[in-house]
Structure formats: structure tokens, C-alpha cells
Write a structure and sequence with these properties.
The strands form five sheets. Strands 1, 2, 3, 5, 8 and 10 form a six-stranded antiparallel β-sheet that branches. A four-stranded antiparallel β-sheet has the order 4-9-6-7. A hairpin with a 4-residue loop joins strand 2 and strand 3. Helix 5 crosses helix 8 (342-355) and helix 10 packs antiparallel against helix 20. The protein has helices at 4-44, 47-51, 188-203, 219-243, 278-287, 299-302, 310-320, 342-355, 361-387, 393-405, 409-414, 420-442, 447-459, 474-484, 491-519, 546-555, 589-592, 602-612, 617-639, 647-668, 674-699, 706-709, 711-721, and strands at residues 58-59, 68-69, 74-76, 82-85, 94-99, 107-115, 135-138, 146-148, 157-163, 171-178, 250-251, 267-268, 329-331, 334-336, 559-560, 567-568. The longest helix is centred in the first third of the chain and has 41 residues, at 4-44. It is of the alpha+beta class. 50% of the residues lie in helices and 9% in strands. The termini are far apart.
């Protein structure tokens, strides 16, 4: 009998004999791409190093007179923060501002002015010209200290001024240098990004082998490819979340060291202020047998005639000096949490009972984001293998990526707060519920799958009730089986239908009991009692809000600049003569995700499907997804407002519909036809544009994110991509 070692050796030898040629080609291609990335990093991304190698460096340190001389350095203060040098009479290619390392890290704005052959006086921006822009310099980042200048001939005078209201003085300098030599830097992050982009381009090029691997005919290869791709996506999402460490809430000896307790391997800490601990406080209250938060509202709030008037609340808060909790439900003298309770039961309460500490919200967002990625991949795989027989691994992956990364979850991961967690939970439960339903449709023993699917879909009500509209997909999925074929009239059909309905009844009973215990009503979730920026008890429904919301959510083009990361908040104007709840947004989904343009051809594509199949399941699914997406977007605007995180409520519905339509087109056109190659190239462009937009949205600076909390570190990220400055 062969040993385990012999079996492993035999398996490896057999695998090598079968796939040797393919593996050799892949290894050679990957090695070539790594070499190209290395050459780009060395010779292109470090071209400032080579360009400055022949410069004659000029040390201006001995000419610094206007600021305090500290012996080995110079001190800039809020009074003396201007450096001026005259009679230079030299070419200036760059300026190097050298900071002392032993000072608090910060990013400062430096205004640079000079006179040269084209300017006898200092110049600024005018009506028809743009002057030298402010230089953003990090005292902690070596690359940002070098500022390339574009001058005309010899420079006579040079003026450097630190500007801005948020500067932390004093600023310690060790010197100022002209025409300094840029240091060589092999940037690992940039190198990894370059390799990733090159690998994606190589893997998804029109002639790639992945378009010839049919998922039905090659189940092992396709599953291996899917697992590998999903694993990479999980790593990318996790790395992105932990990169924004100001919101993670976990610390170790080498990560967020300032919040490490010095003892534990990993410890948690609170982030985001008192308002961000609502779920944790509710878990503590539940452990003590209460459903309201422990914090007592101030007496002035209890005696207010209308406690939901924000202006009146703020005035009384100023008068008394007693603060109130913002964005919680206030009812009958107590604070309540109006967000869905399922995340508390899933994460916070068990964690508190086990450790006595608050569960870090960001970890919950990451867990559910991973669950969403896995659920989306499994659901899409189910459709591809059992409803579209011609889908290749390449087409699957090409459509799976925008379904995951353009659905809005990356913005939730960017801001992994308690606002994001219920949305993320609702999305994860929804895709897994749909997957279980799909498994149940073709299973010989469907009851367990139907029960689990309905349980997931029902739990959405305790996370993000808006997403309950996805439960309407049960009609196109099960109508033919239980109504048209009358399976519902059989004993087995009755049992299966009971498995579909029972979880909804159980979850509804639990949520209604929870609502009644808090507010004395079975259907009152508490949203109207929210102490927020407007009076929710009087908000009502107004058709005037729908037009600006529809434009913002669906049609508004992204607002761009010419500097990385290019995106900026989109402008918002409205003729609605009332209060509009609006946070920054970055464009409508149909303008930012060109893949959704395929929805314009839905009728023609579905007609193609109808000629191929007598059933109308896919047609029904697409119709429900599109109607649900529009309904959720407009309800969000009516009930809450226009916010970027709300895009996650409905984007996935339109993306699912677009993906299914692409599957239909792929099924109809033979891969040997030139039209297929044209459509594949068009699809590559549409998907790429959407993914690029989503990637840029991840790093656009925003209040409360990494760029705002650690601007000096964010400047290092910018220098990674603005390598030519």
C-alpha cells in the first residue's frame, strides 16, 4: 500500500505531466510582467532621480535670516513663516525643504513665488492665468520635500511662505536647497499596484485563455480560477480597511501602537466619538436587561415641547452647556438605537458577554464585506453554471469584479462605522439568501435550502429594511414551480412553501416584539424619533425631492480635476424650495458605471432570451431588480436624504440586472464570430472605466477619513502616484 508521501508525489507528477506546458507559459508571462513592473519602477517612476543627477546643488541655509536660528536648524512661527531670497541669478529646477525629523508630523501648504526672465515681479493667479499652485509638503515624507519648478530662464528672487489656518507651529527646518538631487526610492506599494494592473491587462486581454475555459465543461479549472480571484479580492478589501487605521478600532504592538494596552496581543479601543458607540451601548444595555441606552438625556431635552427641532435643541445646548446624543432615537425620556438590531445580536452582544469590551465596528463591516464577496461570487457562479451554459471563466470574472467593487461596498469599507454596518449586513444576507433559494430550486431536498434562504432574506429587516424589496425575487424564482405547475397543491409543495414563509414569520414576530417593547407599536422602528439634522416626525413625503435625487443618484456626471485622485464632490443645485438632506456625492451610477448602459437594451436582449427559452424566469428577475432599485433609491431620498453610502442600497440591483443581460448576450453570440470579439472589447472598456472610478473613489480625500485624520501620511500616498512632481 503506497504511503501518503508517495500518493502526493504521484499526484504532483501526474499534474505536472498534464499541465506542464500551461504552467511554463504562465510562469514565463508572470516573470516578464514582474520584470516590466520593476523596470517601470526603476526607470520611469524614479525619473526625477536620473533627471536631477547632474544638478549643482545650492545650499541656501546660510541666507536664511528672517526666522529664528536654532543652531542646527531654523524655527518657523506663526509670526515669522516667510523665507525670501534675492539676487539668486541662477536656474532653479527644484526646491528641497528639509525638515527636522524630531517634530510632530503634519502637511503644510507652501506658497512659492519667484521672478525670472518672464516676470520682473512676483505673480499670482489672475482672471486669465493660473499662478504657481500651493505645494503640499509633508514634514514626514521624503519625496514631498522636493518641489519641481518650471521657470523661464534665470531666477532672480524667490519667496516661500507657509500658508493656511491649520498649521501647527513651530516648524523646524534644517535647510533649504536648490537643484537638489532626488533620492532613489523603490516604492513597494506602487510596484504592487503596477504588477496588479499588468496582470489584469494580461489576464483579461481579448485573446486570453480564460475566455476559452467554459465553466460547465471545465468545472475544476473554472472553480480554481474563481477561488484564486475571490481570495485576492478578500485580501485587497482587508488591506484597504486596515489602511484606514483611524477607524478600525483595534491595536497591537505594531499597529495603532498609540492605542495598544501594552499587554494584550490585540485590544480594542473606541473610535469616532460617543455617537459611534450606539451599537456597543445597546449591547451593554441588553446584557443588563434594558432596550434603551444607559446615558440619561439632559433635563432640558425632556422638557422641550418639540425635542426633534434641531435648531431649538442646539440653542438649549448652548444655554445649559449640557450635551445630548446626536442621531439616536429619543422617546419617552430615553435614548434608543433606531438602526437594525441584528448586527447587535450578531456581533456586539456576544462579544461583550465574552470579553466585557466593545466590539470594533470596522471588523464587523469587514466580516460582512467578505461574506458579501463570497455570496456574490457563489450566486453568480450558480447562474452561470445552471442557467447560461456558455459562460467562460473570463466572462464570469469580468462581470464578477464590477458586481463586487462597483456595488458601493468599498465606500462602506472606507468608512466602516455603525452607519455602514447595517447596510453591509443587509447586502450580505441578501446575496446569500438568493444563493440558497437558487440552490433550493434545483435540489432534490429543497426544504433546508429554502428555509436558510428565507431566513437570510428575513434577517435583512433587522439590518436594512429597504433591502427587503429583494425578497420580491421570490415571485419570478418560484412562481412557475409552485403556481404554474401547481406544486403548491401537493403535500411536498406545502412543506416547501412553509419553509419559504416560516422564517419571515419568526423574524417578523421577533422584530415586532422588539419594537413594541420600545415604542408600544409593532411596526414602529423608531426612525421618526431620530435626533438628527431635521425633524423626522414632520418630514413626510414630497414629490419635489424626487427629481434632484433621481438626477444625483442615477444621472449626474462625476466632477473631475486634473490632479490625482481626480474625483471631487459633485455640485448640487435644486429648485426644491425646502430642506434637502445632502452629503457629498461623486456622480450617478449610470454616468460612473458604463456597464449599466447595457440596461438600455434590456427589451431587445430579453427578446433574444425569449426565443431561446420558453420560461421567463430571467426576465422576471431583471424586471424586479430594476423596479426595486429605482424604488429603493427614491425612498432613501424621501425618508433620509441623498448620501454616498446609500448608493450601496440600490447599485447592486442594477449591476445584477446588467450582469444577467451580459450573460444572455454571451449565450446568443458564438465565440468564433468577429462580433463577439468586438463586444468583448467593448465590455472590457466599460468594466475598466467603472473599476477605475471605484478605485479612485476609495482614495479621494474626505472629512473623517484617513486623508483628514493623517494628512501627512495621505500626502505620502499622493506622492506614490504623483511621481513626476
Amino acid at each position: 500500500m503506497p504511503t501518503v508521501r508517495e500518493n502526493i508525489g504521484y499526484t504532483f507528477e501526474r499534474f505536472w505531466l498534464i499541465y506542464r506546458a500551461s504552467l511554463v507559459r504562465v510562469v514565463r508571462a508572470v516573470a516578464a510582467l514582474v520584470l516590466i513592473a520593476a523596470l517601470l519602477e526603476v526607470f520611469v517612476f524614479n525619473f526625477n532621480y536620473f533627471a536631477s543627477a547632474g544638478y549643482d546643488t545650492i545650499d541656501l541655509s546660510h541666507r536664511i535670516t528672517a526666522v529664528e536660528d536654532e543652531g542646527d536648524g531654523f524655527r518657523l512661527t506663526d509670526i515669522n513663516h516667510v523665507l525670501e531670497f534675492s539676487h539668486l541669478n541662477t536656474e532653479i529646477h527644484n526646491i528641497m525643504i528639509d525638515f527636522e525629523r524630531d517634530q510632530p508630523a503634519q502637511t503644510i501648504d507652501v506658497k512659492i513665488q519667484f521672478t525670472d526672465s518672464a516676470h520682473q515681479t512676483y505673480f499670482d493667479s489672475t482672471e486669465y492665468t493660473v499662478g504657481v499652485p500651493l505645494a503640499h509638503v509633508s514634514t514626514f515624507d521624503e519625496q514631498s520635500k522636493y518641489i519641481n519648478l518650471q521657470t523661464a530662464g534665470l531666477v532672480e528672487n524667490l519667496r516661500l511662505e507657509v500658508v493656511g489656518d491649520d498649521v501647527s507651529y513651530p516648524i523646524m527646518l534644517t535647510g533649504i536647497y536648490l537643484n537638489a538631487h532626488h533620492p532613489f526610492q523603490f516604492n513597494i506599494l506602487r510596484f504592487i499596484v503596477t504588477i496588479t494592473v499588468l496582470l489584469l491587462v494580461y489576464a483579461f486581454r481579448p485573446g486570453s485563455v480564460i475566455y476559452r475555459i467554459r465553466m460547465v465543461e471545465n468545472p475544476r479549472k473554472s472553480k480554481a480560477g474563481i477561488i484564486f480571484a475571490v481570495a485576492l479580492e478578500v485580501v485587497m478589501v482587508s488591506a484597504f480597511l486596515f489602511y484606514g487605521s483611524n477607524l478600525v478600532g483595534v491595536a497591537t504592538s505594531s499597529y495603532n501602537h498609540g492605542s495598544w494596552d501594552g499587554v494584550s496581543l490585540v485590544n480594542t479601543f473606541e473610535v469616532g466619538g460617543d455617537n459611534a458607540q450606539q451599537y456597543a451601548e445597546l449591547a451593554r444595555a441588553m446584557a443588563e436587561g434594558r432596550l434603551y441606552l444607559d446615558e440619561e438625556p439632559p433635563d432640558w431635552l425632556k422638557t422641550m415641547e418639540d425635542p426633534y427641532d434641531k435648531g431649538a435643541r442646539d440653542e438649549l445646548q448652548k444655554e445649559t452647556g449640557e450635551k445630548y446624543l446626536f442621531d439616536v432615537a429619543y422617546h419617552d425620556g430615553h435614548y434608543y438605537v433606531y438602526f437594525g438590531v441584528v448586527p447587535v445580536l450578531l456581533f456586539y452582544l456576544p462579544f461583550y458577554l465574552l470579553t466585557g469590551a466593545n466590539f470594533p465596528t470596522a471588523i464587523g463591516v469587514l466580516v460582512m464585506a467578505i461574506a458579501f464577496i463570497l455570496g456574490c461570487s457563489a450566486l453568480l457562479d450558480r447562474f452561470a453554471r445552471y442557467h447560461f451554459r456558455s459562460v467562460s471563466l473570463g466572462i464570469y470574472l469580468l462581470l464578477q469584479m464590477p458586481l463586487v467593487f462597483c456595488s458601493g461596498i468599498m465606500y462602506l469599507v472606507k468608512f466602516p462605522t455603525f452607519y455602514s454596518l447595517p447596510i453591509m449586513c443587509g447586502l450580505a444576507f441578501s446575496v446569500w439568501g438568493l444563493y440558497c433559494w437558487m440552490r433550493g430550486r434545483l435540489s432534490q431536498h429543497p426544504c433546508r435550502w429554502l428555509f436558510m434562504g428565507s431566513l437570510c432574506m428575513a434577517l435583512v429587516a433587522g439590518c436594512r429594511p429597504q433591502l427587503l424589496v429583494l425578497s420580491l425575487l421570490a415571485f419570478p424564482l418560484f412562481w412557475r414551480t409552485y403556481i404554474t405547475k401547481r406544486r403548491l397543491l401537493t403535500p411536498q409543495g406545502v412543506r416547501e412553501f412553509a419553509c419559504l414563509v416560516a422564517p419571515y414569520v419568526l423574524v417578523a414576530a421577533g422584530i415586532m416584539a422588539y419594537n413594541y417593547a420600545r415604542f408600544g407599536s409593532l411596526t414602529d422602528f423608531g426612525a421618526n424619533y431620530n435626533l438628527t439634522v431635521n425633524d423626522m416626525t414632520k418630514r413626510g413625503m414630497n414629490l419635489g425631492r424626487l427629481a434632484p435625487a433621481f438626477f444625483t443618484y442615477f444621472l449626474q456626471p462625476p466632477s473631475m480635476t486634473g490632479v490625482f485622485p481626480f474625483l471631487q464632490p459633485a455640485p448640487f443645485d435644486t429648485t426644491y424650495m425646502g430642506q434637502t438632506i445632502k452629503e457629498v456625492t461623486f456622480g450617478g451610477i449610470f454616468a460612473c458605471f458604463p456597464l449599466l448602459w447595457v440596461l438600455a437594451f434590456s427589451r431587445r436582449i430579453l427578446a433574444m432570451r425569449a426565443r431561446q427559452r420558453s420560461t421567463r424566469t430571467i426576465m422576471g428577475i431583471i424586471i424586479v431588480l430594476l423596479v426595486s432599485g429605482i424604488l429603493v433609491a427614491l425612498l432613501d431620498a424621501e425618508l433620509a436624504g441623498i448620501l454616498q453610502r446609500y448608493y450601496a442600497d440600490f447599485s447592486v440591483m442594477f449591476l445584477m440586472a446588467a450582469v444577467l443581460l451580459c450573460f444572455v448576450v454571451n449565450e446568443q453570440i458564438p465565440q468564433t464570430v468577429s462580433l463577439y470579439q468586438l463586444l468583448l472589447k467593448v465590455l472590457l472598456v466599460l468594466v475598466s472605466l467603472g473599476l477605475i472610478y471605484s478605485a479612485l473613489l476609495c482614495v479621494v480625500p474626505e472629512t473623517g477619513w484617513y486623508s483628514n485624520v493623517y494628512p501627512w501620511a495621505y500626502q505620502s500616498l499622493l506622492e506614490t502616484f504623483l511621481f513626476w512632481t
